[in-house]
Structures are given as structure tokens and as C-alpha cells.
Design a protein that fits this description.
The chain has 8 helices and 13 strands. By secondary structure, it is an alpha/beta fold.
């Protein structure tokens, strides 16, 4: 993932970020000199305004989304006024995990020419995606490990991605790149002791088997994503729907049921044990789940928060964690090189 970040931050770097989720719209402006956010805003969305899926249009209530964007971007000095003197601004756009499909797989060989490599990856994904792969937007990262190529590929219908892009373009933002929410949040691992989001420096031919794993669980209602990394390499990425109770609480047992298949698959197929777990977006449900994970899997557990970057904004820690972990993760990854 280090190479992915380096490609993303190829100068000049965007200083604006916007995340559109089923909960609402988060917007942030930051300074690369201080590696801190200068302004943030969040506006909620009514239920049903966004329905993340790679199978149909995601923005179901455009006017509601437009109003939330307007409210979130205004404090950052961004408006949709037709006579606005502001030139289009490069921005990073974060979309829901469930709007795309992410795959991790191995290839025996990968062509050097990008067009040929993409064609091979399209062929590899063709039977695995529930949409026409020929018309999909695909981004991939390939890294050689010994005799194999380890590939992480994200695919989504271009029409789905374009819906999100067109919405922010109405406000003068020019999406420099589009990132899935949990992938962006992995940048927060840079702020945890002894961890890095990028690949570990394994020697050529050295296998990651036997290395301990790290689990990240991120909740963006109603979607819960489990990501597992080993040796800095993303091994698993799984998203399921979990509905909160009437008071907004999640059942710890229900979350454990969502996590358990990924943990079992990792242990059976990658020869390592999980060592740490980080959770994001669970709000008041976090303490009970942290305790359960520690007891069931014997893990070191913690919240994957905003690491102080939002300390001056007046937002409560649960708000920071739920609404801004993706945007702060992007900033954190860049600031630490």
C-alpha cells in the first residue's frame, strides 16, 4: 500500500477531502505543513438518501445529498454559486466500501505493459463481480513476493463512481482520486505504536506465512467491514450489513459473528495468529465489543481514532471516530511519509 499512497500524493497534493456515506457527508481541509486539519464539517443524511451498492444507482435522493454537501462544504469556503470566482479545487473523494468490490489474489505472472496487466486482472475478476467487468472502473496494486504477484484490486461500475464524482463536481471540486472508506482509514495505523499501513520490508522470496496479523473493523451504518493485514499486506476485506438496535447500540455477539469468518479464514490459510485489533465507528458499542474481542481471540484491542487531529474542532471523540477516520487516515499516511 505504500506504493499506492506514493502515487496518490504525487505533487501537487489535494488539500481537501470529502466523504459521502449513508450516514452523511464529511468534509475537511488540511495543511500539509502542519499535518493537521484546518477545518472540518459534517452533515447528516436521512435514511435512504444513499444506498451503497455496486448493482444500482447509489444516490437515491439527490436533493438531500446536495443539501448535505452544501452544508458541509460551506464552512470550508466552498459553494456551488454559479458566479463563484473560485477555480475547481482538487480533492480526495471517499465513498462507501459497499459501492465497490475489493479482491486480494495471487498471479503467477503479470505483464509489464499496463494495458496487458489490466486485461489480465479483468479476466481474473470477470466471474467474481456481479456487474459487467468490461465497463467497470478498476484500480489495482501489484507487488512481487518471491515467485508470485500479490494483487489488490478494487472494481466498481463506472456509473456508480461517476454518480459520486458528479455530485461533488457541482460544488467546484475535482476528484483527484476515489478511495474506499476503510482503505483510507488504514492510514490511521501509522499513528499506532509499532504499526505501519505500508508493506513490511520482506526480502525477496521471504513469505509472510507465520507473521502475526492485525485486524481492523470499521462500522459505517449499516455496513461493517473487516480488514486483516499481515506483514503490511492486505489479506482479507469483507463487508456485511449489521443493523443497530433501537437505541443505536450494536449487539457485540452480532459483530463477533461478522468478524469470525474472516478470522477463521486468515488462520486457516495464512499460517499466522492475530495479535492486535482496532475498531472504528462503533460509538458507544465499542467498549463491550473491545472486551469481547480481547476475551475471545486474546488480542490487544484499541479504538482506531483520529489521534488528536480533531482536538481543536469541538467534536466529541465518538464523532471524530465515526465521521472522520477516513479523511484523517489519508492525512496521517501522507504526513508520515
Amino acid at each position: 500500500m505504500t506504493r499506492l499512497w506514493r502515487q496518490l500524493w504525487n505533487s501537487p497534493s489535494p488539500a481537501l477531502g470529502c466523504e459521502i456515506s449513508q450516514m452523511g457527508v464529511s468534509a475537511a481541509r488540511w495543511s500539509w505543513n502542519t499535518a493537521r486539519l484546518e477545518a472540518v464539517a459534517w452533515k447528516p443524511l436521512p435514511g435512504g438518501a444513499i444506498e451503497a451498492s455496486p448493482l444500482r444507482e447509489n444516490i437515491r435522493q439527490p436533493e438531500e445529498v446536495r443539501e448535505a454537501l452544501r452544508g458541509a462544504l460551506a464552512p470550508l469556503g466552498i459553494t456551488s454559486a454559479p458566479n463563484s470566482p473560485h477555480r475547481p479545487a482538487d480533492a480526495i473523494l471517499v465513498i462507501p466500501d459497499q459501492a465497490a468490490r475489493l479482491f486480494v489474489f495471487e498471479l503467477d505472472a503479470l505483464p509489464q505493459r499496463p494495458a496487458e496487466a489490466l486485461a489480465l486482472i479483468q479476466w481474473r475478476l470477470k466471474k467474481s463481480v456481479p456487474f459487467e467487468i468490461e465497463s467497470a472502473a478498476i484500480s489495482y496494486l501489484a507487488q512481487r513476493r518471491g515467485e508470485q504477484w500479490e494483487v489488490m484490486a478494487v472494481a466498481a461500475p463506472q456509473a456508480v463512481v461517476r454518480q459520486y464524482e458528479a455530485m461533488v463536481e457541482e460544488f467546484g471540486l475535482r476528484p483527484r482520486c476515489v478511495v474506499l472508506s476503510t482503505l483510507a482509514s488504514l492510514g490511521l495505523l501509522r499513528g499506532t505504536a509499532g504499526n505501519a499501513a505500508g508493506p513490511a520490508p520482506l526480502a525477496a522470496g521471504e513469505a509472510a506465512a507465520g507473521l502475526s496479523g492485525l485486524l481492523v473493523g470499521k462500522y459505517s451504518p449499516p455496513w461493517f467491514t473487516t480488514a486483516i493485514l499481515q506483514g503490511g499486506q492486505l489479506r482479507l476485506f469483507r463487508t456485511v450489513s449489521i443493523l443497530a438496535g433501537p437505541e443505536g447500540f450494536l449487539s457485540p455477539d452480532t459483530v463477533l459473528e461478522a468478524i469470525h469468518p474472516s478470522v477463521a479464514y486468515f488462520q486457516d490459510n495464512f499460517g499466522g495468529a492475530l495479535e492486535k485489533a482496532y475498531l472504528s465507528g462503533l460509538g458507544d458499542s465499542s467498549p463491550a465489543l473491545l472486551e469481547l474481542l480481547e476475551r475471545e481471540f486474546h488480542l490487544e484491542v484499541a479504538l482506531l481514532g483520529a489521534n488528536g487531529n480533531l482536538a481543536d474542532t469541538g467534536l466529541e471523540p465518538p464523532q471524530q471516530e465515526r465521521y472522520f477516520s477516513a479523511l484523517v487516515g489519508l492525512l496521517q499516511e501522507h504526513s508520515r511519509g
